[in-house]
Design brief:
The chain has twelve helices and 13 strands. By secondary structure, it is α/β, with parallel strands linked by helices. The protein folds into three domains: about 15-75; about 90-290, Rossmann fold (3-Layer(aba) Sandwich), CATH 3.40.50.620; about 310-400, 2-Layer Sandwich (Pantoate--beta-alanine Ligase, Chain: A,domain 2), CATH 3.30.1300.10. Strand 7, helix 5 (about 195-205) and strand 8 (about 210) form a beta-alpha-beta unit.
Length: about 400
Protein backbone atom coordinates (compact mmCIF):
# COMPACT_ATOMS: atom_id res chain seq x y z
CA UNK A 1 0.00 0.00 0.00
CA UNK A 2 2.55 2.54 -1.14
CA UNK A 3 1.78 6.02 -2.30
CA UNK A 4 2.17 9.72 -1.54
CA UNK A 5 1.81 10.87 2.04
CA UNK A 6 -1.31 12.85 2.92
CA UNK A 7 -1.40 15.48 5.65
CA UNK A 8 -4.76 15.82 7.39
CA UNK A 9 -5.66 18.24 10.15
CA UNK A 10 -5.85 16.59 13.55
CA UNK A 11 -3.77 13.51 12.60
CA UNK A 12 -0.59 13.24 14.72
CA UNK A 13 2.76 13.12 12.96
CA UNK A 14 3.77 9.55 12.20
CA UNK A 15 0.22 8.44 11.43
CA UNK A 16 -0.43 7.43 7.86
CA UNK A 17 -3.84 7.80 6.20
CA UNK A 18 -4.75 5.51 3.31
CA UNK A 19 -7.77 6.36 1.14
CA UNK A 20 -9.68 3.30 -0.04
CA UNK A 21 -11.67 2.80 -3.20
CA UNK A 22 -15.08 1.14 -3.13
CA UNK A 23 -13.43 -2.29 -3.06
CA UNK A 24 -11.30 -1.45 -0.05
CA UNK A 25 -8.07 -1.06 -2.07
CA UNK A 26 -5.60 1.61 -1.00
CA UNK A 27 -5.34 4.64 -3.31
CA UNK A 28 -2.73 6.57 -1.33
CA UNK A 29 -0.89 6.36 1.96
CA UNK A 30 2.40 6.55 3.77
CA UNK A 31 5.47 5.27 2.04
CA UNK A 32 6.41 2.89 4.82
CA UNK A 33 5.88 -0.81 5.26
CA UNK A 34 2.69 -2.35 3.86
CA UNK A 35 -0.16 -2.69 6.31
CA UNK A 36 -1.00 -6.19 7.40
CA UNK A 37 -4.13 -7.24 9.28
CA UNK A 38 -7.25 -5.34 10.08
CA UNK A 39 -6.44 -4.55 13.68
CA UNK A 40 -3.02 -3.04 12.99
CA UNK A 41 -4.76 -0.45 10.79
CA UNK A 42 -8.44 -0.26 11.71
CA UNK A 43 -10.87 0.98 9.10
CA UNK A 44 -12.75 4.04 10.27
CA UNK A 45 -15.99 4.98 8.55
CA UNK A 46 -16.82 8.64 8.10
CA UNK A 47 -20.56 9.16 7.88
CA UNK A 48 -21.23 11.90 5.36
CA UNK A 49 -24.98 11.77 5.92
CA UNK A 50 -27.52 11.11 8.60
CA UNK A 51 -28.55 7.52 7.96
CA UNK A 52 -26.92 4.13 7.76
CA UNK A 53 -28.31 3.67 4.27
CA UNK A 54 -26.18 6.51 2.94
CA UNK A 55 -22.69 6.01 1.57
CA UNK A 56 -19.93 5.83 4.15
CA UNK A 57 -16.54 7.17 3.17
CA UNK A 58 -13.90 4.79 4.53
CA UNK A 59 -10.34 5.71 5.42
CA UNK A 60 -7.69 3.47 6.91
CA UNK A 61 -5.53 4.72 9.75
CA UNK A 62 -2.09 3.29 10.43
CA UNK A 63 0.60 4.15 12.94
CA UNK A 64 4.20 4.34 11.72
CA UNK A 65 5.84 3.74 15.11
CA UNK A 66 9.34 4.44 13.88
CA UNK A 67 8.32 7.79 12.40
CA UNK A 68 6.28 8.56 15.49
CA UNK A 69 9.26 8.02 17.76
CA UNK A 70 11.45 10.21 15.57
CA UNK A 71 8.79 12.91 15.62
CA UNK A 72 9.00 12.98 19.40
CA UNK A 73 12.67 13.87 19.16
CA UNK A 74 14.97 11.84 21.36
CA UNK A 75 12.40 11.40 24.13
CA UNK A 76 10.34 8.36 24.93
CA UNK A 77 7.48 7.25 22.72
CA UNK A 78 4.45 9.08 24.12
CA UNK A 79 1.87 7.03 25.99
CA UNK A 80 -1.28 8.12 24.14
CA UNK A 81 -3.59 5.82 26.09
CA UNK A 82 -2.49 7.20 29.44
CA UNK A 83 -2.88 10.75 28.15
CA UNK A 84 -6.30 10.29 26.59
CA UNK A 85 -8.20 7.44 28.20
CA UNK A 86 -9.32 9.13 31.38
CA UNK A 87 -10.41 12.49 30.04
CA UNK A 88 -14.11 11.89 30.65
CA UNK A 89 -13.73 13.00 34.24
CA UNK A 90 -14.86 16.53 35.11
CA UNK A 91 -11.77 17.59 37.10
CA UNK A 92 -8.51 17.04 35.29
CA UNK A 93 -6.44 16.81 38.45
CA UNK A 94 -8.49 13.77 39.47
CA UNK A 95 -8.70 11.97 36.20
CA UNK A 96 -5.52 11.66 34.17
CA UNK A 97 -3.76 8.33 34.52
CA UNK A 98 -0.08 8.78 35.43
CA UNK A 99 2.35 8.70 32.51
CA UNK A 100 3.28 5.09 31.85
CA UNK A 101 0.42 3.81 33.98
CA UNK A 102 -0.11 0.90 31.61
CA UNK A 103 2.79 -0.87 33.29
CA UNK A 104 0.50 -1.72 36.19
CA UNK A 105 -2.38 -3.01 34.09
CA UNK A 106 -3.13 -6.69 33.66
CA UNK A 107 -2.56 -6.41 29.93
CA UNK A 108 -1.16 -3.68 27.76
CA UNK A 109 -3.39 -1.69 25.48
CA UNK A 110 -2.67 -0.03 22.15
CA UNK A 111 -0.61 3.08 22.99
CA UNK A 112 -2.28 5.11 20.24
CA UNK A 113 -5.81 6.45 20.37
CA UNK A 114 -7.26 8.11 17.28
CA UNK A 115 -8.90 11.36 18.40
CA UNK A 116 -10.08 12.79 15.08
CA UNK A 117 -13.79 13.57 15.48
CA UNK A 118 -16.58 12.36 13.24
CA UNK A 119 -14.99 9.03 12.30
CA UNK A 120 -17.29 6.58 14.04
CA UNK A 121 -20.76 5.88 12.62
CA UNK A 122 -23.49 6.24 15.24
CA UNK A 123 -26.93 4.67 14.99
CA UNK A 124 -29.77 5.36 17.40
CA UNK A 125 -32.56 3.08 16.26
CA UNK A 126 -32.81 -0.70 16.32
CA UNK A 127 -33.80 -0.66 12.64
CA UNK A 128 -30.66 1.28 11.65
CA UNK A 129 -28.50 -1.02 13.79
CA UNK A 130 -29.88 -4.13 12.13
CA UNK A 131 -29.44 -2.62 8.67
CA UNK A 132 -25.75 -2.04 9.32
CA UNK A 133 -25.28 -5.49 10.85
CA UNK A 134 -27.09 -7.18 7.95
CA UNK A 135 -24.63 -5.64 5.52
CA UNK A 136 -21.70 -7.08 7.48
CA UNK A 137 -23.28 -10.50 7.65
CA UNK A 138 -23.93 -10.52 3.92
CA UNK A 139 -20.15 -10.16 3.60
CA UNK A 140 -19.63 -13.16 5.86
CA UNK A 141 -18.17 -11.06 8.70
CA UNK A 142 -18.39 -11.99 12.37
CA UNK A 143 -19.54 -9.46 14.95
CA UNK A 144 -18.24 -8.64 18.41
CA UNK A 145 -20.21 -6.57 20.90
CA UNK A 146 -19.25 -4.44 23.91
CA UNK A 147 -22.19 -3.00 25.92
CA UNK A 148 -21.33 0.06 28.05
CA UNK A 149 -23.00 2.91 29.91
CA UNK A 150 -20.44 5.38 28.52
CA UNK A 151 -17.97 7.55 30.49
CA UNK A 152 -15.31 5.32 29.00
CA UNK A 153 -11.86 4.63 30.41
CA UNK A 154 -8.95 2.37 29.47
CA UNK A 155 -10.75 -0.68 30.83
CA UNK A 156 -13.61 -0.23 28.38
CA UNK A 157 -11.18 0.20 25.51
CA UNK A 158 -9.54 -3.11 26.40
CA UNK A 159 -12.95 -4.78 26.03
CA UNK A 160 -13.25 -3.28 22.54
CA UNK A 161 -9.82 -4.54 21.56
CA UNK A 162 -10.61 -7.99 22.95
CA UNK A 163 -13.78 -8.09 20.84
CA UNK A 164 -11.72 -7.00 17.84
CA UNK A 165 -9.38 -9.94 18.34
CA UNK A 166 -12.32 -12.34 18.30
CA UNK A 167 -14.50 -10.89 15.52
CA UNK A 168 -14.22 -9.10 12.18
CA UNK A 169 -16.30 -6.10 13.23
CA UNK A 170 -17.05 -4.54 16.63
CA UNK A 171 -20.20 -2.80 17.82
CA UNK A 172 -20.25 -0.90 21.10
CA UNK A 173 -23.35 0.45 22.78
CA UNK A 174 -23.72 3.41 25.11
CA UNK A 175 -26.91 3.36 27.13
CA UNK A 176 -27.37 4.46 30.73
CA UNK A 177 -30.01 1.92 31.66
CA UNK A 178 -32.65 3.40 33.99
CA UNK A 179 -34.12 0.05 35.00
CA UNK A 180 -31.04 -0.93 37.01
CA UNK A 181 -30.98 2.25 39.12
CA UNK A 182 -33.03 2.78 42.27
CA UNK A 183 -34.69 6.16 42.84
CA UNK A 184 -31.97 7.28 45.28
CA UNK A 185 -29.04 6.25 43.06
CA UNK A 186 -26.97 8.26 40.58
CA UNK A 187 -28.95 7.84 37.34
CA UNK A 188 -29.26 11.60 36.88
CA UNK A 189 -25.62 12.39 37.67
CA UNK A 190 -23.92 9.41 35.99
CA UNK A 191 -21.27 10.97 33.69
CA UNK A 192 -22.31 11.30 30.06
CA UNK A 193 -20.06 12.49 27.20
CA UNK A 194 -20.92 10.64 24.02
CA UNK A 195 -18.70 12.67 21.67
CA UNK A 196 -15.60 11.95 23.72
CA UNK A 197 -16.55 8.30 24.10
CA UNK A 198 -16.99 7.99 20.33
CA UNK A 199 -13.46 9.29 19.78
CA UNK A 200 -12.03 6.76 22.20
CA UNK A 201 -14.04 3.90 20.68
CA UNK A 202 -12.85 4.78 17.18
CA UNK A 203 -9.25 4.74 18.34
CA UNK A 204 -9.72 1.34 19.97
CA UNK A 205 -10.97 -0.23 16.72
CA UNK A 206 -14.73 -0.01 17.17
CA UNK A 207 -16.66 0.01 13.88
CA UNK A 208 -20.14 1.13 14.96
CA UNK A 209 -21.70 2.84 17.98
CA UNK A 210 -25.27 2.07 18.99
CA UNK A 211 -26.54 4.89 21.22
CA UNK A 212 -30.30 4.46 21.63
CA UNK A 213 -32.65 6.67 23.60
CA UNK A 214 -34.64 5.40 26.57
CA UNK A 215 -37.77 5.55 24.38
CA UNK A 216 -36.11 3.34 21.76
CA UNK A 217 -35.10 0.72 24.31
CA UNK A 218 -38.28 0.85 26.40
CA UNK A 219 -41.23 1.89 24.19
CA UNK A 220 -44.42 3.03 25.83
CA UNK A 221 -46.45 0.06 27.01
CA UNK A 222 -43.51 -2.32 27.54
CA UNK A 223 -44.20 -4.54 30.55
CA UNK A 224 -41.83 -7.53 30.27
CA UNK A 225 -39.39 -8.20 33.10
CA UNK A 226 -36.70 -10.84 33.64
CA UNK A 227 -35.89 -12.40 37.02
CA UNK A 228 -32.57 -14.20 37.33
CA UNK A 229 -31.91 -16.38 40.37
CA UNK A 230 -28.72 -18.22 41.25
CA UNK A 231 -25.73 -15.88 40.89
CA UNK A 232 -27.97 -12.79 41.15
CA UNK A 233 -28.89 -13.63 44.75
CA UNK A 234 -27.04 -11.96 47.61
CA UNK A 235 -24.15 -9.43 47.47
CA UNK A 236 -25.22 -6.78 44.94
CA UNK A 237 -28.61 -8.47 44.73
CA UNK A 238 -29.17 -7.85 48.43
CA UNK A 239 -28.00 -4.23 48.54
CA UNK A 240 -29.32 -3.20 45.11
CA UNK A 241 -32.36 -5.46 44.68
CA UNK A 242 -33.49 -3.71 41.50
CA UNK A 243 -30.15 -4.01 39.76
CA UNK A 244 -29.97 -7.47 38.24
CA UNK A 245 -33.55 -7.47 37.00
CA UNK A 246 -32.68 -4.29 35.09
CA UNK A 247 -29.33 -5.66 33.91
CA UNK A 248 -30.88 -8.93 32.75
CA UNK A 249 -33.58 -7.11 30.79
CA UNK A 250 -31.32 -4.63 29.03
CA UNK A 251 -28.60 -7.18 28.27
CA UNK A 252 -31.15 -9.60 26.84
CA UNK A 253 -32.57 -6.84 24.65
CA UNK A 254 -29.12 -5.71 23.48
CA UNK A 255 -27.94 -9.23 22.71
CA UNK A 256 -31.14 -9.83 20.73
CA UNK A 257 -30.75 -6.53 18.88
CA UNK A 258 -27.09 -7.06 17.94
CA UNK A 259 -27.08 -10.88 17.71
CA UNK A 260 -23.31 -10.82 18.01
CA UNK A 261 -21.07 -13.85 17.74
CA UNK A 262 -19.21 -12.76 20.86
CA UNK A 263 -19.82 -10.18 23.61
CA UNK A 264 -17.16 -8.97 26.04
CA UNK A 265 -17.82 -7.92 29.64
CA UNK A 266 -15.37 -6.74 32.27
CA UNK A 267 -14.50 -8.97 35.22
CA UNK A 268 -14.61 -6.00 37.60
CA UNK A 269 -18.38 -6.57 37.74
CA UNK A 270 -17.89 -10.27 38.44
CA UNK A 271 -21.38 -10.94 39.76
CA UNK A 272 -22.88 -9.22 36.73
CA UNK A 273 -20.70 -11.36 34.44
CA UNK A 274 -21.97 -14.53 36.15
CA UNK A 275 -25.58 -13.31 35.86
CA UNK A 276 -25.15 -12.63 32.14
CA UNK A 277 -23.62 -16.05 31.54
CA UNK A 278 -26.50 -17.67 33.41
CA UNK A 279 -29.23 -15.89 31.48
CA UNK A 280 -27.50 -16.57 28.13
CA UNK A 281 -27.47 -20.29 28.96
CA UNK A 282 -31.01 -20.32 30.30
CA UNK A 283 -32.49 -18.36 27.36
CA UNK A 284 -30.44 -20.12 24.64
CA UNK A 285 -28.92 -16.89 23.36
CA UNK A 286 -26.28 -17.87 20.76
CA UNK A 287 -23.64 -15.34 21.83
CA UNK A 288 -20.35 -16.35 23.42
CA UNK A 289 -19.81 -14.33 26.62
CA UNK A 290 -16.17 -13.43 27.31
CA UNK A 291 -14.82 -11.97 30.55
CA UNK A 292 -11.93 -9.52 30.28
CA UNK A 293 -9.55 -9.01 33.25
CA UNK A 294 -10.00 -5.98 35.47
CA UNK A 295 -7.80 -3.04 34.49
CA UNK A 296 -6.09 -1.23 37.38
CA UNK A 297 -4.02 1.89 37.83
CA UNK A 298 -0.46 1.82 39.18
CA UNK A 299 -1.83 1.72 42.74
CA UNK A 300 -4.08 -1.28 42.08
CA UNK A 301 -7.35 0.66 42.01
CA UNK A 302 -9.81 -0.89 39.57
CA UNK A 303 -10.67 1.54 36.78
CA UNK A 304 -14.27 2.71 37.03
CA UNK A 305 -16.36 5.55 35.63
CA UNK A 306 -17.44 6.33 39.19
CA UNK A 307 -13.83 7.03 40.21
CA UNK A 308 -14.56 10.48 38.75
CA UNK A 309 -16.61 11.22 41.86
CA UNK A 310 -13.62 10.83 44.22
CA UNK A 311 -11.73 13.81 45.56
CA UNK A 312 -8.00 13.57 46.25
CA UNK A 313 -8.35 12.37 49.83
CA UNK A 314 -10.95 9.76 48.86
CA UNK A 315 -8.81 8.56 45.97
CA UNK A 316 -5.94 7.91 48.38
CA UNK A 317 -8.22 5.74 50.51
CA UNK A 318 -9.77 3.99 47.49
CA UNK A 319 -6.35 2.76 46.42
CA UNK A 320 -6.11 0.70 49.63
CA UNK A 321 -9.06 -1.53 48.69
CA UNK A 322 -7.03 -3.77 46.41
CA UNK A 323 -4.43 -4.48 49.12
CA UNK A 324 -6.98 -5.44 51.75
CA UNK A 325 -8.70 -7.83 49.36
CA UNK A 326 -5.39 -9.37 48.28
CA UNK A 327 -4.40 -10.09 51.88
CA UNK A 328 -7.80 -11.64 52.61
CA UNK A 329 -7.57 -13.75 49.46
CA UNK A 330 -4.18 -15.11 50.57
CA UNK A 331 -5.58 -16.04 53.98
CA UNK A 332 -8.60 -17.76 52.41
CA UNK A 333 -6.36 -19.70 50.03
CA UNK A 334 -4.46 -20.96 53.07
CA UNK A 335 -7.75 -22.47 54.32
CA UNK A 336 -8.21 -20.10 57.21
CA UNK A 337 -11.89 -20.16 58.30
CA UNK A 338 -13.80 -17.81 56.02
CA UNK A 339 -15.83 -16.21 58.79
CA UNK A 340 -12.59 -14.99 60.38
CA UNK A 341 -11.14 -13.87 57.05
CA UNK A 342 -14.24 -11.85 56.19
CA UNK A 343 -14.47 -10.35 59.68
CA UNK A 344 -10.82 -9.22 59.60
CA UNK A 345 -11.16 -7.85 56.07
CA UNK A 346 -14.21 -5.83 57.13
CA UNK A 347 -12.24 -4.35 60.05
CA UNK A 348 -9.23 -3.66 57.81
CA UNK A 349 -11.38 -1.75 55.33
CA UNK A 350 -12.80 0.47 58.06
CA UNK A 351 -9.31 1.07 59.43
CA UNK A 352 -8.13 1.97 55.91
CA UNK A 353 -10.64 4.82 55.85
CA UNK A 354 -13.71 3.44 54.09
CA UNK A 355 -16.83 4.88 55.66
CA UNK A 356 -19.22 1.99 55.17
CA UNK A 357 -18.91 -1.61 54.01
CA UNK A 358 -21.88 -3.16 52.25
CA UNK A 359 -20.18 -6.53 52.05
CA UNK A 360 -16.87 -8.32 51.81
CA UNK A 361 -17.40 -12.01 51.05
CA UNK A 362 -15.64 -15.03 49.63
CA UNK A 363 -17.80 -17.17 47.35
CA UNK A 364 -17.50 -19.95 44.79
CA UNK A 365 -16.29 -18.59 41.48
CA UNK A 366 -19.01 -19.71 39.09
CA UNK A 367 -22.32 -19.58 40.99
CA UNK A 368 -21.24 -17.31 43.88
CA UNK A 369 -22.60 -19.78 46.39
CA UNK A 370 -21.21 -19.89 49.94
CA UNK A 371 -18.73 -22.58 50.97
CA UNK A 372 -20.64 -25.01 53.19
CA UNK A 373 -17.59 -26.18 55.12
CA UNK A 374 -16.49 -22.65 55.95
CA UNK A 375 -13.16 -22.92 54.11
CA UNK A 376 -12.13 -22.59 50.48
CA UNK A 377 -12.15 -26.02 48.86
CA UNK A 378 -12.72 -24.99 45.21
CA UNK A 379 -12.00 -21.98 42.96
CA UNK A 380 -13.22 -18.86 44.76
CA UNK A 381 -13.63 -15.12 44.44
CA UNK A 382 -13.49 -12.39 47.06
CA UNK A 383 -15.95 -9.56 46.38
CA UNK A 384 -16.49 -6.25 48.15
CA UNK A 385 -18.62 -3.12 47.99
CA UNK A 386 -17.54 -0.06 49.98
CA UNK A 387 -18.44 3.61 50.35
CA UNK A 388 -16.39 6.78 50.30
CA UNK A 389 -18.62 9.82 50.69
CA UNK A 390 -21.29 9.55 48.00
CA UNK A 391 -19.26 7.08 45.95
CA UNK A 392 -19.82 3.34 46.05
CA UNK A 393 -16.93 1.22 44.81
CA UNK A 394 -16.91 -2.50 44.00
CA UNK A 395 -13.98 -4.81 43.38
CA UNK A 396 -13.14 -8.48 43.35
CA UNK A 397 -10.27 -10.85 42.72
CA UNK A 398 -9.60 -14.55 42.41
CA UNK A 399 -8.76 -16.70 45.41
CA UNK A 400 -6.37 -19.51 44.61
CA UNK A 401 -7.86 -22.93 45.13
CA UNK A 402 -5.97 -25.12 47.62
CA UNK A 403 -3.65 -27.68 46.09
Amino acid sequence: MDGPFQTLAGIPEGVGVHDLDTKGRAQSGTGGSPLRGRRSAPALNVDGGHGVGQVLETVRIAVDHATGIQAEGRGKHRDWTSDEAGLHKPILARQVLPHGSQSGLSQRVNPFIMTETGVLPVVRSIAALREALSDWRRQGLTVGFVPTMGALHAGHLTLVREAGQRADRVVASIFVNPTQFAAHEDLGTYPRQEARDAELLAGAGCDLLFAPTVEEMYPAGATTTINVGGPAEGLEGAFRPQMFGGVALVVTKLLNQVQADVAVFGEKDWQQLMVVRRLVRDLDIPTDIIGSPTMRDDHGLALSSRNAYLDEAELEVARRLNGVLAEAANQAAARRPLAAVERDAHAALLKAGFERIDYVAIRRTDDLGAFRNGVVDAPARILAAVWLGRTRLIDNMAVAAPA
